[in-house]
């Protein structure tokens, strides 16, 4: 398992796609974004346009553990991105965030093939002014710590440059 972290437009998604494409396909792209507005629809379209066959895309804005567990054994899986999944969970009034995070960690640990996870590193900025944003930043940081401990490799992408924090550089 590889965890790829980076800021907005850091190049983390392209880097993660390259990691997966270096393996034999077909590849599975698990998308967590939801197109709530026109700007997000454009972002989703840009991501999809970068990928051609043998990529298969499934949308899993909420049941990310199920998508990971449902992947064909041995098939490389790319999840993009964890912070959108976390946002979706936090905005769901009925969500048990601790249980869902635990299920995600278990699914990642049990993945039946290569798994690359992409997430936004949001902890480098200022302390947000509102409680929801502070909670999001804190939950993302805790999720990254737990996944970083579980991952075989952790890469931070800054200005399109990958820096390996844990494990071997591919």
From TrEMBL:
Pfam families: CobU (PF02283). GTP binds at residues 6-13, 31-33, 48-51, 80. Keywords: ATP-binding, Cobalamin biosynthesis, GTP-binding, Kinase, Nucleotide-binding, Nucleotidyltransferase, Transferase. Catalyzes ATP-dependent phosphorylation of adenosylcobinamide and addition of GMP to adenosylcobinamide phosphate. It comes from the Bacteria. It catalyses: adenosylcob(III)inamide + ATP = adenosylcob(III)inamide phosphate + ADP + H(+); adenosylcob(III)inamide phosphate + GTP + H(+) = adenosylcob(III)inamide-GDP + diphosphate; adenosylcob(III)inamide + GTP = adenosylcob(III)inamide phosphate + GDP + H(+). Its EC number is 2.7.1.156, 2.7.7.62. Pathway: Cofactor biosynthesis; adenosylcobalamin biosynthesis; adenosylcobalamin from cob(II)yrinate a,c-diamide: step 6/7; Cofactor biosynthesis; adenosylcobalamin biosynthesis; adenosylcobalamin from cob(II)yrinate a,c-diamide: step 5/7. The active site is at 47 (gmp-histidine intermediate). SUPFAM superfamilies: P-loop containing nucleoside triphosphate hydrolases (SSF52540). PANTHER family: BIFUNCTIONAL ADENOSYLCOBALAMIN BIOSYNTHESIS PROTEIN COBU, PTHR34848. One of its GO terms (molecular function) is cobinamide phosphate guanylyltransferase activity. One of its GO terms (biological process) is cobalamin biosynthetic process. It comes from Methylobacterium terrae. This is Bifunctional adenosylcobalamin biosynthesis protein. InterPro entries: CobU/CobP, P-loop_NTPase. Belongs to the CobU/CobP family.
């Amino acid at each position: 398992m590889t965890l790829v972290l980076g800021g907005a437009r850091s190049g983390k998604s392209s880097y993660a796609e390259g990691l997966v494409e270096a393996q034999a396909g077909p590849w599975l792209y698990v998308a967590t974004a939801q197109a709530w507005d026109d700007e997000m629809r454009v972002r989703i379209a840009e991501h999809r346009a970068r990928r051609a066959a043998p990529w298969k895309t499934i949308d899993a804005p909420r049941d990310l553990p199920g998508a990971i567990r449902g992947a064909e054994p041995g098939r490389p899986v790319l999840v993009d991105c964890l912070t959108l999944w976390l946002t979706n969970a936090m905005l769901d009034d009925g969500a048990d965030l601790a249980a869902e995070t635990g299920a995600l960690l278990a699914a990642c640990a049990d993945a039946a093939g290569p798994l690359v996870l992409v997430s936004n590193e949001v902890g480098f900025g200022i302390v947000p002014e509102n409680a929801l944003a502070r909670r999001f930043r804190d939950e993302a940081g805790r999720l990254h710590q737990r996944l970083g401990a579980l991952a075989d490799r952790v890469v931070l992408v800054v200005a399109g440059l990958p820096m390996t924090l844990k494990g071997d550089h591919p």
